[in-house]
Amino acid sequence: MIYQRSSALFTEAQQYIPGGVNSPVRAFKSVGGTPVFMKSAKGAYLTDADDRTYIDYINSWGPAILGHTHPEVLEAVQKQAEKGFSFGTPTELETEIARFIIENVPNIDQIRMVSSGTEACMSAVRLARGFTGRDKIIKFEGCYHGHSDSFLIKAGSGAATFGNPNSPGVTQGTAKDTLLARFNDFDQVKDLFRNNPEQIAAIIIEPVAGNMGCVLPENNFLQKLRELCDEHKTLLIFDEVMTGFRLAFGGAQERYNVKADLVTYGKVIGGGMPVGAFAGRSEIMDHLAPKGAVYQAGTLSGNPLAMRGGLETLKIIKKDSDFFNRLDKTTEILDFEIAKILNSKNIRHRINRVGSMMSIFFHIGAVSNFDEAQNANHALFNNFFHHMLKNGVYLPPSGYETYFISSAITENEIEKTLEAVRKFEYS
Ligand code: PMP
């Protein structure tokens, strides 16, 4: 059996950890089979407990944009560790990373560090409510903004994967303040504003959705939301936990040239350490404690190891003026070549891609929203996933996720990946 040690480890893990994992999608529940336990990672490759290696297209769900354990990041974190793991006091390093980000990202004056994307989105919404004095928010079906209560309503990612986008435990009282619209459906958003006058604090959106698979904004959707928010004095929150420092250094704000009022970050901003952040104009950020009344805090916020890992990663990206072009080109080649192979086998599919994010849907026609993502052939995706895994290619274990391409993927890895796709038989 090829996953022998993983299988034994999973059996043992289930005794001590709910479902054997610390985050649901890792359990392979939707694709079936044994989750592969990894023990190390370097560059483009993961190594599992059975000593098999895989080309990694998840990259820790986005953070490892440089590939794994980049030598310069590793050295910087090691040196930092010698100075202490955590102080619970302000440090110069926190100002250094804040300044670096603010100088290189459009449209933000201040940034607050937290420890996860969930915290970032939860805090941004609280701030938007505190700033506007309104209660309701709009979110889009299939978007995921972390597991805070207000967001677990028609949520994407693991919640969608397990067919339970609405979580038990979220009270009716909380749910009633989250209004839902279809991604890319501007008329629905307008109707929500018409029916809830002066009540909507914020629209929160993944500017490119990555949690129902990769779904792109269409027909100037983001620009139209910007105008609508201006008209109604509602804040526009871009959840750039996936897109930040990935679609461009300035994320989707830069790539689509649309300004958000608040932006949330995670993943790449920590370079693999547990980090999230939210940022915006001073006029809004000033409402946060200790300056303002909106409370938000964290024991490990701004943790020196995390700040060092993040700052080093961001600096490496920033000093390479061709970084995003190369990453985009790699992804484009993968898209075109995989499509060619699947077409030659008459396997109907749709690849959605922007920058270094992409997903393959086994679907006829466009995938522009959650309904269409759900209509894709997920059973076929599951076969494809297991075929690729057996052939040494690690894709996200769900048809509702995005592949994150790292700069460690070279021609060699592309060729090995395509070779695996060539061997795929429709069944
Ligand atoms: N927002 C988006 C867009 C995400 O993709 C995620 C996680 N995948 C989150 C928020 C939550 O981040 P975390 O898992 O770090 O809490």
The counted number of beta strands is 14
Give the name of the CATH superfamily of the largest domain. Answer: Type I PLP-dependent aspartate aminotransferase-like (Major domain)
CATH topology of the largest domain: Aspartate Aminotransferase, domain 2
Radius of gyration from the CA trace? 21 Å
- Overall geometry: globular
- pLDDT averaged residue by residue: 96
In the CATH hierarchy, the architecture of the largest domain is 3-Layer(aba) Sandwich
Main sheet properties: 7 strands, mixed
CATH domain class name of the largest domain? Alpha Beta
Catalytic activity: (S)-4-amino-5-oxopentanoate = 5-aminolevulinate
GO cellular component, one term: cytoplasm
Family: Belongs to the class-III pyridoxal-phosphate-dependent aminotransferase family. HemL subfamily.
Subunit structure: Homodimer.
Can you describe this structure?
This protein has 427 residues and is α/β, with parallel strands linked by helices. It has 2 domains: 4-69 and 321-422, Aspartate Aminotransferase, domain 1; 71-319, 3-Layer(aba) Sandwich (Aspartate Aminotransferase, domain 2), CATH 3.40.640.10. It is 38% helix and 14% strand. It is built from 15 helices and 14 strands. The strands form 3 sheets. A 7-stranded mixed β-sheet has the order 4-10-9-8-7-5-6, sandwiched between helices. Helix 3 runs parallel beside helix 11 and helix 12 (323-344) packs parallel to helix 15 (411-422). The radius of gyration is 21 Å and the shape is globular. The model has no long low-confidence stretch (mean pLDDT 96). 4'-deoxy-4'-aminopyridoxal-5'-phosphate binds next to helix 4. 4'-deoxy-4'-aminopyridoxal-5'-phosphate (PMP) binds at residues 61, 116-118, 121, 144-146, 157, 206, 210-211, 239, 241-242, 266, 276.
